[in-house]
């Protein structure tokens, strides 16, 4: 298979129309690719070229004007032309020595026809060959794509995919995974071995060689690099496209393996169930995580719990969503374990980095997951979750779950108050459920707020709302009146009434704190009744 889709100047010289052509200068540049053949007879050409053109000329209008001829040659080189072919046969002129030296210094092919040729025959012949090669390239790529697709349907196709790519390129092929040992496909010569070792050790190559690299990307994460080591300036467009197709096939294979792994993980719940019910010791948990997940002691764990009305098939059953979440958390420094408990999806996040910034990393990852869910389920309810307390002891993971559960409960009954998904940010609100069970919340509300609540019921008043906003604004009358859309005089009247019901000391520190907590308690109790 010919991997050179574009002609090089050296290929052009082998065609029948160049039998009587002589290379005057730039033999080192004969590797230049010829993308098109163009006839030019005017000296001003810098706006006429795109690069890669082989220029045919008789220079009839400026062959005897050295400065114009030099400017013509300089424009060709600066524009990236592949070479210049000159026919002086009818006029019997020589190419000026200055032009030959200038072209040689820049490795620019300067070719002279020693016998008369027809430019129209040259362009027709070369363009036909180029188009045929282009069609052949498309056919070969289509065949390769079909073969790669067939391989993707077989188990463990990685080596077969690499072998297909290797057969279609020239050079040394490497697959360098992010984790694991590189895979190398090359001949067995000592020189090749030394070249590969030098590249792997120093990420550099000796003069005359260069690297073409394609990332194996899945779920916006790089899993490996597909690398081709080849001689400088020899890579063809065909080989570049082969590398693209190979990297894409490897990415699909990686994604399939991730799906398979995810499916396996969702079925391995027995051990997790015992962990959840605190039936494992700390040492057993650490040993199991290292043995089955390859994790050497993480620094702690935290539970991310999804609201119960998110159906299992939306989260745990959506393999794409799970694989994407795993990738997101991995970038944030967490290893994800998924567990189902009574219809709720738990994300057990094992922290693989330092403890100090776990919350910031978890928050960014959670935001990315929210955006992912919104893209997957456009127009549906916003995904809702709580993130529990951070546990440095893995056997206490259930406590983190209970804390995350409390976050979800408070989000439900006090949606206006709870903005953060973190249990750590609940502060005094953590006490609500415990105090409710003991009956203290009702007592608190009755003692501090009952006069105001009864007054509002009997008089259709808004004292409770006024008190709530007055406390939230730190006693600012101007801000309170603004938020209530009332005049100052009305506010003063309401505040007088509040002082009469609650006492003149209601804004003093101890009582004010009690009133603020009583308001939170009242909202919590009201939310639980609905």
UniProtKB/TrEMBL annotation:
- What range(s) does the Purine catabolism PurC-like domain occupy? 11-129
Q: Which Gene3D superfamilies match?
A: PucR C-terminal helix-turn-helix domain (1.10.10.2840)
Q: Which InterPro entries match?
A: CdaR-like_regulators, PucR_C-HTH_dom, PucR_C-HTH_sf, PucR_dom
Pfam families associated with the record: HTH_30, PucR
Q: Which residues form the PucR C-terminal helix-turn-helix domain?
A: 463-521
Protein name, entry field: Purine catabolism regulatory protein
Organism for this UniProt entry: Bacillus altitudinis
């Amino acid at each position: 298979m010919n991997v050179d889709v574009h002609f090089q100047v050296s290929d052009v010289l082998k065609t029948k129309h160049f039998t009587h052509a002589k290379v005057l200068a730039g033999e080192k540049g004969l590797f230049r690719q010829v993308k098109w053949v163009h006839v030019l007879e005017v000296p001003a050409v810098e706006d006429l070229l795109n690069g890669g053109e082989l220029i045919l000329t008789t220079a009839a209008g400026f062959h005897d004007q050295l400065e114009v001829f030099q400017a013509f040659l300089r424009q060709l080189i600066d524009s990236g032309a592949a070479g210049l072919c000159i026919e002086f046969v009818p006029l019997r002129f020589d190419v000026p020595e200055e032009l030959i030296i200038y072209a040689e210094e820049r490795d620019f092919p300067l070719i002279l026809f020693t016998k008369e040729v027809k430019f129209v025959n040259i362009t027709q012949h070369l363009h036909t060959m180029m188009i045929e090669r282009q069609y052949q390239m498309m056919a070969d790529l289509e065949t390769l794509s079909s073969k790669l697709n067939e391989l993707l349907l077989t188990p463990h196709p990685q080596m077969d995919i690499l072998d297909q790519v290797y057969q279609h390129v020239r050079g040394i092929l490497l697959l360098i995974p992010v984790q694991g040992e590189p895979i190398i496909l090359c001949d067995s010569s000592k020189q090749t071995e030394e070249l590969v070792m030098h590249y792997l050790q120093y990420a550099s190559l000796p003069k005359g060689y260069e690297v073409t690299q394609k990332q194996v990307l899945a779920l916006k994460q790089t899993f490996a690099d597909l690398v081709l080591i080849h001689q400088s300036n020899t890579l063809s467009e065909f080989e570049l496209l082969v590398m693209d197709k190979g990297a894409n096939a490897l990415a699909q294979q990686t994604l399939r393996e991730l799906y398979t792994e995810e499916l396996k993980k969702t079925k391995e719940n027995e051990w997790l169930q015992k962990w959840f019910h605190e039936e494992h010791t700390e040492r057993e948990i650490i040993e199991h995580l290292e043995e089955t997940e390859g994790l050497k002691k993480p620094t702690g764990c935290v539970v991310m719990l999804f609201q119960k009305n998110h159906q299992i098939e939306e989260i745990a059953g959506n393999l794409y969503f799970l694989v994407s979440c795993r990738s997101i958390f991995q970038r944030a420094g967490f290893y994800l374990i998924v567990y189902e408990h009574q219809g709720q999806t738990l994300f057990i996040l094992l922290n693989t980095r330092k403890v100090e910034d776990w919350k910031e990393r978890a928050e960014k990852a959670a935001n990315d997951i929210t955006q992912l869910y919104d893209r997957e389920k456009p127009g549906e309810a916003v995904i809702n979750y709580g993130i529990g307390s951070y546990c440095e002891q893995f056997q206490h993971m259930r406590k983190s779950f209970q804390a995350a559960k409390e976050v979800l409960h408070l989000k439900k009954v006090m949606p206006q108050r709870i903005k953060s998904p973190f249990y750590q940010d609940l502060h005094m609100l953590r006490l609500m459920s415990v105090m409710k069970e003991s009956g203290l919340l009702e007592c608190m509300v009755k003692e501090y707020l009952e006069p105001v609540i009864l007054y509002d019921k009997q008089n259709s008043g808004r004292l409770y709302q006024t008190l709530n906003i007055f406390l939230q604004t730190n006693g600012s009358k101007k801000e309170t009146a603004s938020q209530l859309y009332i005049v100052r005089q009305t506010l003063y009247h309401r505040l007088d009434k509040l002082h009469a019901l609650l006492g003149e000391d209601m804004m003093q520190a101890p009582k004010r704190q009690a009133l603020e907590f009583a308001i939170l308690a009242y909202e919590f109790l009201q939310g639980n009744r609905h």
